[in-house]
Specification:
Elements (H helix, E strand, L loop, with lengths): L1 E3 L4 E9 L6 H11 L9 E4 L5 E14 L2 E9 L7 H8 L4 E7 L5 H17 L9 E6 L9 H10 L4 E3 L8 H20 L1 H5 L3 H17 L2
Parallel strand pairs: 2-5, 2-6, 6-7, 7-8
Antiparallel strand pairs: 1-2, 3-4, 4-5
Helix pairs in contact: 5-7
Bound molecules: guanosine-5'-diphosphate and magnesium ion.
């Protein structure tokens, strides 16, 4: 989190992590489409020829925190391929929260697990405790055949500490829910760490309902 007391601006960094081709970029594209231009800035996407992200994507979202305070979320994606670990580690630096985008296809189970372990390693490398870092998990591509069943995912969700969301990111399904889940978890974590309500008069529940409302309007305009 970056705080600009003068400009009264808080910037929160959220990272979409996961194996190659799980739908991280698609999540950002869907958010960009679903929220109003008032909230979303320009989506910056860098793609290589094989359609896999070379460096990262970035989507800025801005919300009013009241009392002349702006809250900016910077959403990043990482490149999933094994060879791009240095970039992944760099993008994860200073992350306040992470959405892990898993591919629901059974054939991708191992790739999901490896990427998840890699995320935890890179968090540690950046001096972030992976056990207390806010993480939500999205099982994407629910529309495809050969995916893990809802029951399987629900079972995993009940065992793990991370909130779990199901999505079809190419149709925008579950994307806003995942972002909201991540925002809530991250905001409560930041509040506990930095007492934002004391420093800025920004009540967590009030701010989160502002965000929810703003994104609800985005969806209604679909
Ligand atoms: N069937 C299906 N395809 C998806 C879904 N989400 C993403 N994709 C496709 O999966 C491929 C990789 O998506 P992308 O967002 O580039 O993956 P990234 O490498 O994680 O950024 C693209 O062809 C997407 O259109 C989904 O929910 N269902
Ligand atoms: Mg990508």
């Amino acid at each position: 989190m970056q705080v600009d007391f003068h400009g009264r601006e808080i910037t929160v960094k959220l990272v979409y992590y996961g194996p190659a081709l799980s739908g991280k970029t698609t999540n950002l594209q869907a958010i960009h489409q679903l929220v109003t231009a008032e909230t979303a800035g320009r989506l910056m996407t860098l793609e290589t020829r094989d359609d896999r992200t070379l460096f990262f994507d970035l989507l800025p979202l801005t919300f009013s925190g009241g009392k002349n305070l702006q809250v900016r979320f910077k959403l990043f994606t990482v490149p999933g391929q094994v060879m791009h670990n240095a970039t992944r580690r760099l993008v994860l630096q200073g992350a306040d929260g992470t959405a892990f985008i898993a591919d629901s296809q059974k054939t991708e189970t191992k790739a999901n697990q490896q990427a998840f372990l890699n995320m935890r390693e890179n968090l540690s490398e950046n001096g972030i405790d992976p056990d207390s870092h806010p993480v939500v998990i999205q099982f994407n591509k629910r529309d495809l055949p050969g995916v893990r069943t809802d029951a399987e995912i629900d079972r995993m969700a009940s065992k793990g500490r991370e909130p779990v969301f199901k999505a079809v990111a190419i149709r925008g399904v579950g994307v806003i829910e995942t972002f909201l889940g991540l925002t809530e978890l991250t905001w409560r974590h930041l509040e506990a760490k930095h007492q934002l309500h004391e420093k800025f008069g920004l009540e967590p529940e009030e701010f989160l309902s502002t965000v929810r409302e703003r994104l609800g309007i985005g969806r209604a305009a679909e």
